[in-house]
């Protein structure tokens, strides 16, 4: 069903997490009332299920919206509302001046997995194609980039091989570095439903904290933060020892086993248990279950990706599946859970500094030529240099090398690490532009030009969920005031910069059509999809080459065990475990980890308007083990001062046995805009990250604790 702003019902993918549930939206009974949401029973990924966030999304769409462009020449001045005409004039003048003086490398855009694919595509075409700078990065750098790099390293391409039906088919599910119960609730409920029927699967959770996820597990390995790769090596050791390696599979479909075997032999169970801080019997139990499993599925998210060895750990998970032949068949495989609603789509359209659309790379001359031709730019328009990832963008601002930093659909003044340093760097950039839906965000405080964005529900476009399923999100409400779709803003700027032909799309469907044509023959081939087909036949999984019948996309990748590497074999990697980038020490004896709560979404621009979410989580709390609290002289409910090498925050303490001694936990949600409740966890965190994926270690920093 296609819906337009005048219709009374609509279908869309939920705009929160990467589960990507289908929502059915119903218009308010009275003018000015709220749209209501419930699960779309016909959506194949979620079959009518939703969680609190999807169910309450209607409450978030009206309040506190930006309705007109705002401008100030200096950030110590108040904003004045301006016209779009004036906003575009400012952008064109400043971009042309930069191109004439410093060149395109002084321009950067920082986008988001909350873009629709069309938004992403238009922004990339503008910066990488028209302007010749690859400095387009996205908050997926903080989120999925280790999964992207890990898949590419192991299999030759990004792209999760599994699908949600595998949750119903696995007999063992390893949940590593994921609090699925709070962050991907509908998938978690799907696992629990099977267990309630007595139909398995076994659940093993690897997390330094006890969570709602581990509460339901058969085995909880509360490892020390940053020891996941060591755990995987120790598991590998037991596979070698206990004939858990499928030698025929390894010989036929992989390369690099000899090096991996050498590494794994060095991780004896005693050593592994000591490094991870777990009981050796628990490690052995997991190995027994893995070896006995007919179909083992690994699910992971930020506890794995946000690590200085994130890519190696993702490869470590892939190693385990490859060596035991647990891939390419129902119920088995390494399945990365995407965080944001369109993190997957962003990867497909090339939404990171090293990527081009269709899982292509900027460093591949053939890829650049294909994209230049398709985009209609002269040969050589796309720079061969990988662009600046987000942290290097911050460093470039520190050095005064960026003239324009354009932030869109993300709130980095909450979500980036080392926030004090970020604040100073951004204040050093002469033109900060923010495309945002809501007024008063932390990032707005450092912005010169604010562009009001139409958000989900007010613009049409596609999102792609964790199982590669593409859903058309319809436009069913009018944008407030003069807010415009992000893709349309980038397109108009492109035309005004002189690229009329390249940015002449009449609507989002035309943007999507141009994108899918660029995926022909690639792993993420979506060339058979269109807004029309998705509207008529509902959500579809890719690969979906031209000519595919509706419903005919592939549920799984690599079922033929042919991998897109030069040899056609998957690669095993023998990366030695390194542990944390900033381990605890005498001065900072605890490890702070930072994550999420069920009811809140990131920087709370939406969920601060949802009564149920505020009631469930009224304030930020620091989870502390009783032994650490006693040592610091802190009682339950007391105010603690948490210090790291970069700064300090004060926050109320919650004493709990559920966290590992030596580790403390803060939620990420309460940024500086939350007034008295503000608790800027990321002032404490550092930016050191994985050298391959460039993803910062947002899960761990060394801190000290004292009464405030
Ligand atoms: N309710 C809610 N749901 C969300 C979001 C939200 O904001 N709110 N955001 C979405 C997004 S963008 C994302 S990326 C996902 C994130 O989803 P998750 O990754 O599941 O969520 P987090 O709370 O960030 O981290 C998960 C767990 O990692 C654990 N952890 C910390 N350090 C380590 C470690 O060294 N090893 C291991 N194994 N575990 C560790 C933490 O204790 C935490 O329980 O959630 C998505 N869903
Ligand atoms: N320490 C620590 N830090 C973390 C994490 C962690 O686990 N620990 N997690 C990281 C991860 S995985 C993520 S994904 C990030 C998330 O961090 P952010 O991306 O900063 O968080 P959001 O609040 O989702 O920001 C999205 C912004 O886009 C706006 N918006 C919504 N829709 C639209 C739209 O259609 N157009 C435009 N232009 N704007 C829109 C919203 O109002 C909001 O301000 O945080 C990262 N930071
Ligand atoms: S599980 Fe995720 S996608 Fe589904 S309703 Fe909840 S937040 Fe939305
Ligand atoms: Mo994320």
Describe what this molecule looks like in 3D:
With 708 residues, the chain is an alpha/beta fold. It folds into 4 domains: 9-60, Phosphorylase Kinase, domain 1 (2-Layer Sandwich); 70-143 and 341-541, Rossmann fold, CATH 3.40.50; 145-336, 3-Layer(aba) Sandwich (Dimethylsulfoxide Reductase, domain 2); 590-685, Barwin-like endoglucanases, CATH 2.40.40. Helices cover 31% and strands 17% of the residues. The protein is built from 25 helices and 28 strands. It has a 7-stranded mixed beta sheet with strand order 5-4-18-17-16-6-7, with helices on both faces. Strand 19 and strand 20 (469-473) form a beta hairpin. The longest helix is centred in the first third of the chain and has 18 residues, at 84-101. The radius of gyration is 24 Å and the shape is globular. The N and C termini lie far apart (56 Å). The structure holds ligand MGD (2 copies), iron/sulfur cluster and molybdenum atom. One ligand MGD binds next to helix 6, helix 14 and strand 23.
């Amino acid at each position: 069903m296609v819906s337009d702003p005048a219709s009374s019902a609509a279908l869309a993918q939920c705009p929160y997490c990467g589960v990507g549930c289908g929502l059915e939206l119903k218009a308010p009974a009275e003018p000015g009332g709220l749209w209501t949401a419930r699960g779309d029973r016909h959506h194949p990924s979620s079959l009518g299920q939703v969680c609190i966030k999807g169910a309450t999304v209607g409450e978030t769409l009206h309040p506190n919206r930006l309705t007109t462009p705002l401008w100030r020449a200096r950030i110590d001045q108040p904003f004045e509302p301006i016209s779009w005409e004036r906003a575009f004039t400012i952008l064109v003048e400043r971009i042309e001046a930069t191109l004439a003086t410093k060149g395109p490398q002084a321009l950067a855009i920082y986008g988001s997995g909350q873009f629709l694919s069309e938004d992403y595509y238009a922004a990339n075409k503008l910066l990488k194609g028209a302007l010749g700078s690859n400095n387009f990065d996205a908050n997926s750098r903080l989120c999925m980039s280790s999964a992207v790099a890990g898949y590419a390293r192991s299999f030759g391409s990004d792209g999760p091989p599994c699908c949600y039906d595998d949750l119903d088919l696995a007999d063992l599910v390893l949940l590593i570095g994921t609090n699925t119960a709070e962050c991907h609730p509908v998938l978690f409920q799907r696992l629990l439903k099977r267990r309630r029927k007595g139909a398995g699967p076994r659940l093993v959770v690897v997390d330094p904290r006890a969570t709602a996820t581990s509460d339901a597990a058969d085995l909880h390995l509360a490892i020390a933060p940053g020891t996941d790769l060591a755990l995987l090596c120790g598991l590998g050791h037991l596979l070698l020892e206990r004939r858990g390696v499928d030698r025929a599979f390894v010989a036929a479909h992989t390369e690099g086993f000899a090096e991996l075997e050498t590494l794994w032999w060095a991780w004896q169970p005693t050593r592994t248990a000591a490094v991870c801080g777990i009981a050796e019997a628990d490690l052995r139990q997991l190995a027994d279950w893995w070896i006995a499993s007919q179909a083992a599925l690994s699910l992971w998210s930020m506890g794995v990706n946000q690590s200085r060895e994130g890519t190696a750990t993702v490869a470590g998970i892939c190693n385990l599946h490859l060596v035991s032949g647990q891939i390419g068949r129902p119920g088995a495989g390494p399945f990365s859970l995407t965080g944001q609603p369109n993190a997957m789509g962003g990867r497909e359209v090339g939404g990171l500094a090293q990527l081009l659309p269709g899982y292509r790379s900027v460093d591949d001359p053939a890829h650049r030529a294909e994209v230049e031709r398709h985009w209609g730019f002269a040969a050589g328009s796309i720079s061969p240099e990988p662009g600046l990832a987000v942290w290097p963008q911050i460093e470039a601002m520190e050095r005064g090398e960026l003239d324009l930093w354009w932030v869109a659909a993300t709130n980095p003044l909450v979500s980036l690490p080392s926030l004090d340093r970020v604040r100073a760097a951004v204040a050093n950039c002469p033109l900060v532009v923010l495309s945002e839906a809501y007024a008063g965000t932390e990032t707005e405080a450092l912005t010169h030009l604010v562009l009001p964005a139409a958000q989900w529900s007010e613009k049409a476009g596609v999102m792609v969920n964790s199982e590669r399923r593409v859903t058309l999100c319809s436009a069913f409400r009018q944008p407030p005031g003069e807010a415009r779709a992000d893709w349309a803003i980038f397109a108009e700027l492109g035309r005004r910069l002189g690229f009329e032909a390249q940015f002449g799309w009449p609507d989002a469907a035309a943007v999507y059509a141009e994108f899918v044509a660029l995926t022909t023959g690639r792993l993420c081939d979506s060339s058979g999809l269109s807004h029309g087909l998705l509207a008529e036949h509902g959500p579809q999984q890719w690969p979906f080459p031209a000519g595919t019948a509706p419903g005919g996309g592939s549920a799984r990748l690599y079922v033929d065990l042919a991998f897109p590497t030069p040899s056609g074999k998957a690669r095993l990697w023998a990366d030695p475990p390194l542990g944390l980038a900033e381990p605890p020490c005498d001065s900072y004896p605890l490890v702070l980890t930072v994550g999420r709560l069920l009811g809140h979404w990131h920087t709370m621009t939406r969920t601060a308007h949802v009564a149920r979410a505020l009631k469930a989580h009224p304030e930020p709390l620091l989870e502390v083990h009783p032994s650490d609290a006693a040592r610091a002289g802190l009682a339950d409910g007391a105010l603690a001062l948490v210090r790291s090498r970069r700064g300090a925050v004060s926050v109320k303490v919650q004493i709990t046995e559920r966290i590992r001694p030596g580790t403390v936990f803060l939620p990420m949600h309460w940024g500086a805009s939350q007034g008295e409740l503000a608790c800027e966890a990321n002032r404490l965190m550092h930016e050191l990250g994985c050298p391959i994926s460039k993803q910062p270690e947002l899960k761990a920093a060394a801190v000290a604790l004292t009464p405030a």
